[in-house]
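#struct-pred
JK: can someone run the complex with nicotinamide-adenine-dinucleotide? inputs below
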Amino acid sequence: MAQNGEAAADVVARLRRAHERGTTRPLAWRLGQLQALEQLLLEEGHRFEEALRADLGKAPPESQVTEIGVLLQELRHTRRSLRSWLLPRPAPVPAQLQPAAAWTVLEPLGVALVIAPWNYPLLLALSPAIGALAAGDALVVKPSEIAPATSGLLAELLPRALDARLVAVVEGGPAETTELLAERFDTIFYTGSGRVGRIVLAAAATHLTPVTLELGGKSPAWVDPSADLDVAADRLAWGKFVNAGQTCVAPDYVLATPRVAADLVPRLDRALRRLYGDDPLQNPDYGRIVDERHFARLSALLDDGRIAVGGATDPATLKIAPTVLTGVDGDAPVMREEIFGPILPIVEVPDEAAALRFVTERDKPLAAYVFSRDAGVRRRWAERTSSGAIGYDAPVLHLAVPGIPFGGVGASGSGAYHGRRSLLAFSHEKAVFAKPGRPETLGLIAPPYTAARERVIRRLLR
Ligand code: NAD
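RT: done, structure tokens with the ligand placed:
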């Protein structure tokens, strides 16, 4: 049910009627909505920080760095560029069709559905919403029920700040999402697990609705013998343990030779002490696990290797200290599924070739990270592995660059967004072709196919 108790079918029907009036077509409406969203984040930022603290124990500066700040950047980038992104794009016309002109225009798809997960519950609800508003779509946002404070706040504030005729928030879990998915949308943007991604895709198939899937997976980090290990340890410690490891592009595990692994562990230990002190469970800068189910799941994974760093847990606060596991078997449970928590296994391999094999034998991840000072190593990983993105010497940060696409490949998703790609994800790129009435050149390629005409055709099409 939406906030006012409306059924899913009524929400979608209401939005569709409003969208058909053409309100969202003008650039002014779109820019106005984006500006209103920016203002909302600036004015109510402290309430979102409180909600994120309640849902995930996030420190307010972390919420600024990883959610609110990323959204503000994305909003400014989009507002600055939208006018030029929406200009018709001319395309060259082949000789046999001349004289003529061809171009593309972007048109709104209609009513979009955004389904968000709980781990960055604000960012991952609103970042796709920026694309939908820029594209001139009507929009239903379905935040995650597992982050109830953020979900409630979005339901309260979004329809108030934005054009409520065209933007709705529907709260709820699987039952409410199933109800929504029975409706016909013009596009669905889903972020979350592959398991639910399959459900979304199957439901969309009924209506031939296109879907963007932003999924997860096990993103590897190869720490090459040529790497600057101090830099690698500092950045892995941040990228893995920010948001208590509940980050889709977090380095899931490290691959390293035994020698590199031995040198890396004490550096990770030092880096983690610098970030979270000697008792991370008591540190307010360090987040918690989202719920008891995930806490139990993660606690069980602590047995899958030797605890080299961390290992402490507190069921009362749902905190698990940043933990590094060594001596991990490639087939252990911790290596079978995305960890999505503060446990970093180090899997030892004899050399780079074995590491490459380890990665390519598994599902294509959302990101691959390579720590190396050797250009040849970097090139080999780019060429021989497939992943949504590749990061050299820096995990996670690529997601904050609006000019490069963010998305997966294979099991980690399909379609991408951020910056202009968000606009494209929520638009139809319509092809336009126009031919002047004179001179008439159709005679050159149409019957009757006399010998002379055939010669012309063959020459034209060479
Ligand atoms: P999830 O799939 O359990 O939930 C995501 C959304 O789906 C929620 O809104 C939830 O209400 C809804 N949902 C859950 N069960 C449903 C059902 N049976 N039918 C219909 N809807 C249902 O995912 P999650 O646990 O919230 O997120 C974790 C996963 O998401 C991880 O794999 C992570 O890597 C991935 N993720 C990916 C990205 C990305 O940008 N690619 C970002 C964050 C998380």
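RT: quick notes.
The radius of gyration is 25 Å.
The chain has two domains: 8-215+413-429, 220-407.
JK: thanks, will look after standup
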